[in-house]
Fold this protein.
Amino acid sequence: MYERKDTLYRRAKAEGLRSRAAFKLSELQRRLRLIRRGDAVVDLGAWPGGWLQVAAELVGAEGRVLGIDLVALAPLDDARVVILEVDAADPALPARAREILGRPADVVLSDMAPKLTGIAPRDAARGAELLETARCFATATLRPGGTLVAKTFGGPEMEAARTALRARFGRVRLVGLDATRKGSSELYIVATDHRA
Ligand SMILES: C[S@@+](CC[C@H](N)C(=O)[O-])C[C@H]1O[C@@H](n2cnc3c(N)ncnc32)[C@H](O)[C@@H]1O
């Protein structure tokens, strides 16, 4: 387990990636082809910026990527990427995002995670809140046919979110990744074909 963790960590460093989490988005892309050239992508919970780097590469020269986090990110030195230091639950954010992107988003990514307290019910409740935040932001920001990818840690809250998402998306899948640390309950909900 530690060897695998170290390998991905070292690979991220060697490739100039800001986090080992970058490999999760690469794996999602390899398996599901979620992001296309020219896409407008929003990345919720973007710090330190691994997913932003991968997304910017995938959208190519004509695409746009907007990164959101409570924590300030070091700038990416990439004209395609805009970063906002703000709570993803800010009710003004969907309108601001559409303005920055110049159009509704094609893909919303959420790798948001709460700061863990170690108190399981509190951590689960906070995780569920972030999932709900991602769902609300996505349904307010995505174009018809658009895609949401959101991190979850399972439990009844995840089931409630999947049910709510099925009302607004044509297909809702649950994906576990090889790049996730062993022993983690982390999963990603992938909701495609947004119905505006
Ligand atoms: C696992 S990290 C993201 C790693 C990132 N995907 C990468 O590749 O580098 C989770 C992030 O979610 C952010 N976050 C948690 N709650 C948030 C909120 N309400 N609004 C915005 N960001 C939030 C945290 O600040 C943290 O930086």
Q: What stands out?
A: The mean pLDDT is 93. The helical segments are 2-14, 22-32, 50-59, 93-101, 120-141, 156-166.
